[in-house]
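hey
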């Protein structure tokens, strides 16, 4: 089931968008309404703690408690797989939104024309995320782990531990072999660590801070390649 958040402070426009969403053919979904950016962000934090993240956020930019782009930057960090669709009355923001990860920018006067397409693209992106899994074996059991859920991997002695928000999966596979089967958002940060760059909040020359507060070591030999890969993802 899709979990959608709508953040729009104008009550009339808010209700119009909600009504229009009911006319669009979407997979089974729920919609939570917000009139302030902080309320949306707090709800996203709680949803992440409950392991029920928002899939899509429709974000106004001019909000009473701040700029929607600022809140989207926070969402990118705390809930990196949430897909953002911007809707605004102001064309001036068209360049600023590219400081964030988003899938579409819509002027409100055209929302009936473009919102269905934006939601379709978002749903396709979510399905692509869900299909990207990593198959491992441990004690003759098979596990399929969604790559988007992986925070990092750590090699200890002869076992690799794959860390997700809800579980830690052991496997005998070496990091180098696992990396060959992972998507482009993964990189070695240390001879004993692979990190999902989408989970990285900030890096220093010797560590990467993940969105859940975990600190992953970065060795000198991996630092430049890791930073270059993050910069390429952003650009």
């Amino acid at each position: 089931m899709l979990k959608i958040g709508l953040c729009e402070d104008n009550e009339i426009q808010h209700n119009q968008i909600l009504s229009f969403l009911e006319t669009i053919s979407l997979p089974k979904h729920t919609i939570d309404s917000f009139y302030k950016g902080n309320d949306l962000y707090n709800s996203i934090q709680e949803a992440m703690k409950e392991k029920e993240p928002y899939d899509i956020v429709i974000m106004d930019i001019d909000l009473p408690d701040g700029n929607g782009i600022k809140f989207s930057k926070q969402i990118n960090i705390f809930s990196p797989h949430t897909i953002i669709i911007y809707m605004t009355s102001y064309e001036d923001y068209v360049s600023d939104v590219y400081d964030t990860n988003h899938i579409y920018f819509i002027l409100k006067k055209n929302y009936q024309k473009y919102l269905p397409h934006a939601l379709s693209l978002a749903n396709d992106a979510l399905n692509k995320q869900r299909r990207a899994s990593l198959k491992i074996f441990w004690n003759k059991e098979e596990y399929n782990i969604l790559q988007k859920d992986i925070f990092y991997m750590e090699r200890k002695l002869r076992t690799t531990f794959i860390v997700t928000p809800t579980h830690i999966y052991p496997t005998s596979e070496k990091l180098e072999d696992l990396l060959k089967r992972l998507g482009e958002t993964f990189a070695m940060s240390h001879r004993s660590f692979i990190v999902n760059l989408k989970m990285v909040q900030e890096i220093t020359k010797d560590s990467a801070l993940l969105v859940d507060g975990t600190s992953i070591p970065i060795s000198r030999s991996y630092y430049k390649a890791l930073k270059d890969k993050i910069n390429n993802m952003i650009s």
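The mean pLDDT is 90. The first strand starts at residue 2 and ends at 7.
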